[in-house]
Amino acid sequence: MHTPQEAGGHGAGHDAHHHGVVVPAPPGFVPHVVAHHFDTAEAEFSADKLAMWLFLATEVLLFGGLFAAYFYYHGVYPETFKVGGHQLNWRLGALNTLILLFSSYTMAMGVRAAQLSQKALMQKMLGITVLCGLGFLVVKYFEYAAKVSHGLVPARWFSDHDHVMAGVENGHLFFNFYWTMTAIHGLHVLIGMLLILWVMKGGAKGRFYGGYYLPVDLVGLYWHLVDLIWIFLFPLLYLVP
Amino acid sequence: MTTYVPVAETEARQEPGAPHYLNVTHGFRSWALTLDHKRIGLMYLIGTVASFLIGGLLALLIRVHLWKPEGAIFDPELYNQVFTLHGVFMVFFFIIPAIPAALGNFVLPMMLGAKDVALPRLNLASFYLWLCGLVLATIAIIFGGVDTGWTFYTPYSIQTPTAVIWMGLGIFMVGFSSIFTGLNFVVTTHKLRAPGLTWFRMPLFIWAVYSTSLLQILATPVLGITLLLLVFERVYGIGIFDPKMGGDPVLFQHFFWFYSHPAVYIMILPAMGVISEVISVHCRKPVFGYRMVAFSSLAIAVISFLVWGHHMFTSGQSEWAMMAFSFLTFFVGIPSAIKEFNWVATVWQGSVALTTPMLYALVFLIIFAIGGLTGIFLATLSVNIHLHMTYYVVAHFHYVMMGSTAIAFFAGVHHWWPKMFGVMYSEAWAKLSCLLIFVGFNLTFLPQFIMGSQGQIRRYATYLERWTPYHQASTVGAVILGVGFAIMVAYLLHSLLGVRKARRNEWGGVTLEWDSPSPPPLENFERPPVVTREVYDYSVLNPKS
Amino acid sequence: MSAHSAHAEAHGHAPGAPVLVTHHHVSTVAILTKVFLTLVILTIITVGVSQVDFGSANMVIAMLVAAVKAALVMTFFMHLRYDTAINNIFILSSFAFLALLFVFTLTDFSTRKAVNPIHAKRAPIAEPDTHYLWKTPRTKEHKHE
Q1: Can you point out the beta strands (E) in B361-488?
Q2: Where are the domains of chain C?
């Protein structure tokens, strides 16, 4: 299409574009350089944030498939799911819920600190978040170990040698859901922890400040989603209604 | 606007040695690590066309095998593997990425007046995910192939000794490649439109690719989790889809078609976008009912999520669900018909130039009408029970997928070829090849409608004597089709020698990509484009003598 | 966050001061803390309700509480309340499309017996060799006709 030169005032004198716009940083921080194909830092921020939300939408649908299958079989075998749910330790499940909720809280505080260029506070909050994630996985490990000792493991090796599921049909199905859903969720926790550690590495170098806190924000969104999924997993698996 | 683009500018050809995206850097690394959307699009183009040729070769083998009622080449097990691989390569490695990832990657940022897609690194990562998927699929072929059909229905896909795990993981990868491409395009469309390019000034190709991208984002994750569960099913037997362990195979079909029905619109929607562009440019007319065509893309995207159960009418679904799905399926006909009618109305009284892309577009109009209308019969519950799993279904979706989507893809390739490489192909050979493809295609698939409606079941390695004439006609058609494509590959490769340089605006288009030299420079435009006119306003171009 | 200030700040050549505080919305510590405490209380409610048998209402209550918790996390921790309309639309539409998957698959499951009672015989699906539906008495009924 035709592009009248006179209307292009916006782009005039932007030879620096090829190297990207610089967002000035307070002392002690590394200024952020905007990617070359964005005109402003705000354009870059809003584009990347939109991308992250779209990615979260795909995560919702990915886990959503598992939840749909859960409800389907919960409808087919209500007894199996009820008895299966009683085999899980809801106290440990509740503890893990509180741990994840707290980690979400510290994550939100970490993003806030980044927005205000409070480097030390941000690193502290992100550190607590990672530790919470670690705590979650440790609790999970003990739960898994208890299940393995009862032979309540994924189907091919499902032995149920204490016969806790003997009275219901297809007792293994509940535990297949339990293992599949918590394992995929646990993988997300692990990935989230690694992402936070990666952000902390950049944070230590002073990359994130009021003018540029995008990676902290995006990793935070991911971490909150992991929490969000657990909010649904907890009652469905541990307190089967 | 009354400014005219001078003829000298639209007719200009790149000076030899002028820097453009192809020659600005050299070497393997400059391609393997490129973040330029045009180079990534080109790599996709090579990859998808290669997949198409592999899939096409397999199709030819299938047709040759079916020359005789008892089968000419394969034993039945091998036949199952061959038609599965044909389906997998064509669907997952060619059609789904072909138009959005190959043509879309090249054209979409340019049409928007952007320097690149919003997330160039993710774009490259998508390509490598696609490539990983291809590698895993190749591994699957080496480790015993797959014989489930491209739909991987349980419980057979749990029991078969073939390499379902490798193929499942490969398609999982390709799925995420597709998700990330869609995500990238949505963000690009929202955030990187040139100043003045409002939503209703966007070319219809963008609308179509945007709708496709929404489908890719919202539907593909469910395929991902389904294939993951299938892999778990085979690795450690979770039993969710295995009736022996209390699972329900119909649930697998629900999950699979929740993705794969929208997926057929992932395939056809961008094709419709290409056709809108091609018809408008080569008829020198704005697309009739621009807004309706734009909205019909979104409507198709939404409706496509409501109809997946029509693939499961004989699978043991509940009757109520079947009625609902059948009823809802008819609604897809409305936006599709809006498009078809509007294209025909665009051609009407247009200044039609019978160039190669336009010929392909006309072929599309004819074949899509047949493909779409036969879909109405299949949507009808009672008729579907009779036609399910027959060659009628094969013919229907080849009319839509191959005859419409692939034809539109080639319309797009011929339309943007001069822009991509700055060279022109031989129009005479191109028209001959188009004719052969049109004749060959119809000869291949029209007989399949007939024998399908008479009860010939699909996916069998052998058939009864009485179907011989239909199968042999179909095979002859397939060979003609093959010759047509061989000619196409030959003249397109020959054109790359650069005998005929392409003009800057080879066809007289007015969307933004034609405002850039052919081939375009690294960041697409010599000056940042500003849009001041309505879309498809051909009045700015000086009328050619 | 006005577009104007965003523009001014983002342009490096404006003699702008270093960006110490973002121009985006910053949540107060009080809000975040209140949300966290509410989430803890809701978790306690979830556990408490599950100990009482309300019949099928248990599932509804559990999911409603979980939905409220999820909404709180999204609105405040994920800043959705202060985010752009388009981000809101996309994430909410993902839930809408997920609802389609739920509605249709569960409709199929829950109405299988509605028209053809033969579907009720699918229950012993786990027994070997009986999961092929058409081997069940249906053929006999047809002969009867």
Answers
A1: none
A2: 116-145
d(CA B189, CA B368): 28
Q: State which H helix or E strand residue A69 sits in.
A: helix A41-76
Spell out the domain ranges in chain B: 7-540
DSSP of B279-300: HHHHHTSPPTTHHHHHHHHHHH
- Whole-Å CA distances, B192 to B112, B519, B527: 7, 21, 15
Query: b/e for A18-52, b at 16 or more Cβ within 10 A?
Result: eebbbbbbbeebebbebbbbbbbbbbbbbbbbbbb
Q: Provide the ipTM.
A: 0.93
H or E segment at A22?
strand A22-23
pLDDT digits (tens, 9 = 90+) for B421-458: 999 999 999 999 999 999 999 999 999 999 999 999 99
- Selecting from 2.50.20.10, 3.30.450.20, 1.20.210.10, 3.30.460.10, what CATH number does the domain B7-540 have? 1.20.210.10
Contact A50 B190 (CB under 8 A): yes
Alpha-carbon Rg for chain A in angstroms: 23
Q: What is the pLDDT of residue B7?
A: 67
| Domain boundary assignment for chain A | 59-238
C100 chain-B contacts, CB cut-off 8 A: 305-306
Two tokens, residue B184: 């990238």
A149, A155, A157, A158 alpha-carbon torsion, rounded to 10°: 40
Question: C63: which chain A residues are within 8 Å (Cβ-Cβ)?
Answer: 232, 235
Which chains pack against A, by 3+ Cβ pairs within 8 A? B, C
Which chains would you list as touching C if contact means 3+ CB atom pairs under 8 Å?
A, B
Low-confidence ranges of chain B (pLDDT < 50): 1-3, 544-545
Q: At what angle do helices B120-142 and B37-65 cross, to 10 degrees?
A: 20
Strands A22-23, A32-33: pairing kind: antiparallel
**SS3 (DSSP) at B457:** strand
Nearest residue of A to residue C34, measured between CA atoms: A105
Prior bond of B155 cis (ω within 30°): yes
Q: What is the CATH number of domain A59-238?
A: 1.20.120.80
Residues linked to residue B5 through DSSP beta bridges, in sequence order:
B541
DSSP of B332-358: GHHHHHHHHHHHHHHHTTS-----HHH
Nearest chain A residue to B113, by CA: A1
Q: How far is A123 from chain C (nearest CA, A)?
A: 17
Instruction: Report the C-alpha gap between C34 and B322 in whole angstroms.
Output: 48
Which distant-in-sequence residues (6+ apart) come within 8 Å of A162 by Cβ?
Answer: A150, A151
The model's pTM is 0.91
